[in-house]
Amino acid sequence: MFEIKHKKTGEILHTLDYQSLRGVTLHGIDFQNADLVGLDFSGAKFHTCNFADADCHEVNFSGASFNNCLLKRAILHDAILVDANLSDAHLDVAELKNVNAEKLIMRYAKANNADFSGANLKNADLSFSDLRSNFSRANLSSANLYGADLTNADLTHANLEKADMSGAKIMNAKFNFAKMAGSIGTNGMPWGAHTTKTATKKAWWQVWRRAAV
User: Fold this and answer.
1) Contact yes or no for 95/116 (Cβ under 8 A)
2) pLDDT over threshold 80, residue 161
3) 192 pLDDT band (50/70/90 cuts)?
């Protein structure tokens, strides 16, 4: 049995009657402001759960899935999210410093003003997500950023090697000292490459006719 307490008052919010929290399926649980520090939720399935303002640092969420869940302002620094699924999740202003989220699936998520500094997001799928956030020193190598909104994002010292940013929005984003080798830019071409218009070749008879005039 696990007693879930309020992170400040110590009030018991929920009692989860399980021998282990690994692989559990939870529906509609309100974890707002809860103290979940260090718990092992690996492989868990969360449906319409509220983690807003919850303290989840150092929690093991590896392989967990979050269906229609709210994680606004959640504290997730140093948590494990390897192979987790946060698609469509709301992570605005969430703290994910140094999180280990390799192979994370986070498509269509809303993560505006979140802090991913130092996070490991290698091979993560972040396509079509709102990522107007802090990714300084984050590892985004081989990440899928297709169609993502990186407007004003801070990618200073980030590793974006082999990342795909095709169709992404990067206006005013900071790429100072970022590693970009092998990455794909917003135009679908290797980073730094520019499309150029090639001259249209005229048919041989048009060239001959012009010369004869």
Assistant:
1) no
2) yes
3) confident
Q: Check: CB of residue 59 under 8 Å from CB of residue 34.
A: no
100 closest CA partner among 81, 74, 125: 81
Which pLDDT value is given to residue 202? Answer: 56
Q: Report which of 41, 90, 83, 101 is spatially closest to residue 67, judged by C-alpha positions.
A: 90
Q: Which residue has the tokens 């498509």?
A: 107
- Looking at residue 197, its pLDDT comes to 52
Distances (CA, A) of 151 to 28, 73, 111, 134, 141: 33, 20, 12, 11, 19
The two three-digit tokens of residue 54, written as one number: 């919850």
The 3-state DSSP class for residue 205 equals helix
Half-sphere exposure in the Cβ direction for 175 (13 Å, CA): 18
Distance from C-alpha of 92 to C-alpha of 116, rounded to nearest angstrom = 11
- In angstroms, the CA 101 to CA 78 distance is 10
Q: Is residue 145 predicted with pLDDT exceeding 50?
A: yes
Hey, what are 130's tokens? Answer: 């709102």
Q: SS3 of 15, please?
A: strand
